Amino acid sequence: MSAAEGLLDSQDEDVAPTAAECIAFVSDNQTHGVVESMMSQFFDSPLVRDGGSQQALEYLAEFPAPKVIIVDIGDSAAPLTAMLSLTAAFTEDTRLIGIGTINDINLYREMVGAGITDYLVKPVTEKALAAALARAEEPLHAPAVPDDAHNQDQVRRIAVIGSRGGVGASSLAVNVAWILSHDKKKKTAIVDLDLEYGTVALLLDLEPTTGLREALESPARIDSLFVESATARLTENLSVMATEETLSNDVHFKSEAIDLLFDTLGRTNEYIVVDLPRSALALRQRIFETATDILLVTELTLPGLRDSMRILSSIEEVAAGKPVTVVANRAGSPQQAMSPKDFQKALGHKIEFLIPQDDKAFKQAANNGKPLVQIEARSKASKTMHSIVAKLTGERKSAKTKGKRGEEGKSEKKSSWGQLFKKG
Fold this sequence. Notes:
The chain is of the alpha/beta class. The chain is built from 19 helices and 13 strands. The strands form 2 sheets. Strands 8-9-7-10-6-11-12-13 form an 8-stranded mixed beta sheet, with helices on both faces. A 5-stranded parallel beta sheet has the order 2-1-3-4-5, sandwiched between helices. The protein is elongated.
């Protein structure tokens, strides 16, 4: 008999039984294994029993309420009623997590609105349960974020876009979000708006979340509870919205959904990093308009130059004067066709950062599902990414340009590369 079971079965009426830290009532083997594995990482003497809401009620009638109680309501015909019956049996000091089979955002809203800490849909994963247990450990009345994060004017929206596919824009977005959340201790959300081919979840070894498409197509459904249910909490300061939609149906974005989604995210985050696809014109234009900063990632190649020029032109059309930071990735690689000097001369825009080629480090990060800056912090590429974040946070001033006179002289010299792509 375990120590926890000995405590629960004690019949000594002279000593009041001590409340357990955490107890779970589950009805199937898969859920039992996940719950038992994760509870042991959060609590010293957790107890997992077979059963559901009825067994949980019988336990609460005999023993003091635990700090956390997990209840499987998958077999309940009225899951919300079953959970409400449980909440009536203990004080607000106890956290309740439900596990069920109904995947319905309205049910989730009703449960959270009734004071239930979280509701997970089967099959439950270790990551989802770990996030729920982490929320259960948060102080009941603690503010979710620093006060200044509630001021939308102070929320930074950083759009990251690649000149072409495969240039490393998603990798940079992930690493920027990690530095902001982990090193700078800022509440940060990263949103992968490439709903079909996005790689943010893959780069972070996360299961794709659900709800992002629904939010973009039905903005009326967006609220704080909806966004929370569609977000995966990677760390205390970093949340992720990244889905993986089927290729058989088009995704129809609504521009007003972008505003509402980011306004909602801005209530609980200080930085929002957006991995922006080159498709979906209306979506791209709206992000350019609302972003506070834009990172354009490219490679020093002829196609990279052509498409960088096109993207800079599209940004200027909808958001003239918007600050754009050009980042050249894989500098020094065998595929590099132009020098940075020739590239930026033809582009008509300064390259502010060069991320050096480092195949070994990037492959290791990808294979481990972790940001490069986390596992190869001393690499030259990681140091460059820290410099990029330092500029975004205002800790690093942009590199000083040469004297105005000198720049004017240079602008009069037309690059042959620039002439190649000059509009007729």
